[in-house]
Amino acid sequence: MENKQIEVLAVNISEKKGTVKTAVDEITLYENGVKGDAHSGSWHRQVSMLARESIEKFEHKANRTIAFGEFAENITTKGMELFHTNPFDLFVSENHILEVTQIGKKCHGDNCAIFREVGNCVMPKEGIFVRVIKGGVMKAGDKLNYIPKIFKARIITLSDRASSGEYEDRSGPRINELLTEYFEKIKWCLEIEHILIPDDPKQLAALLEDSKSQGIDIVITTGGTGIGPKDFTPEIVKDFIDKEIPGVMEMIRLKYGAEKPNALLSRGVAGTMGESLVYALPGSVKAVNEYMEEICKTLQHLIFMLNALDVH
Predict the structure, then answer these.
(1) CA atoms within 13 A on the CB side of 184
(2) Most CB atoms closer than 10 Å: which of 34, 50, 197, 212?
(3) Strand, coil or helix: what is 38?
(4) Does residue 140 sit in the same domain as residue 154?
(5) pLDDT, tens digit, 9 for 90 and up, residues 112-154
(6) Do 133 and 173 belong to one domain?
(7) Contact assessment for residue 194 and residue 155, using Cβ atoms and an 8 Å cutoff
């Protein structure tokens, strides 16, 4: 989604959860949300936002006017339908940075005061939640720039022969293809850089260090996970890993090794490296297909976990 600007129509507060909020002249955003609001705290649903565009659709169905804060939103906006955003997208102004953490929520129906008063609630489907990255005073009339999160991935192929042009690198492009398909499926934006290097531990270490310093979201290597004299990738990757995620690779080895014991010989690793997820995969296209199928099953959840979003 392209960058847009939205306008704050109202700011609203309530002292109890599950009740309508009251419009106020201004709110103060701080590290735990909105000062004085029941939803503030050290969690991922600190501040709720709802677009006037969503409210108007409900008004048409209900045949009545909905007041600001009636759906318990802290910030009422206009300019775009907020539910089209994704987690980690930003709303930014000179004084504020808000990061999207969740789209919609579970509705408690008759147990919710809003549902009892209004008869329905648009927040579960079209409201969003954000956390405060940079706080300050906010009031009606403020403008916020919408900046979609673009995830960055770096694929590193290690191969003397492919880097010298003796044969075509096929495993790196295949990872590119599968990762692109996955991000398109979950509707997150992704940019991929593919680098082909010889079997050189110093070059790999330099690229991992650079990936960590840049905060590349996902780093995937392919090649060098066997036991040959130039198979050093796991050792280099482990030097940079802060927290290993052994279960991913163990499950892959057991799943495919049950029928083809040679799959048990791969020494692929997975883990976190600063703000990055890093995976070391074998060099064959067949292995890439097998590994990526399993990696993608937990990839989004790992990104949430790495960024402290509890979205169980």
Answers:
(1) 7
(2) 50
(3) coil
(4) no
(5) 555 555 556 667 789 999 999 999 999 999 999 999 999 999 9
(6) no
(7) yes
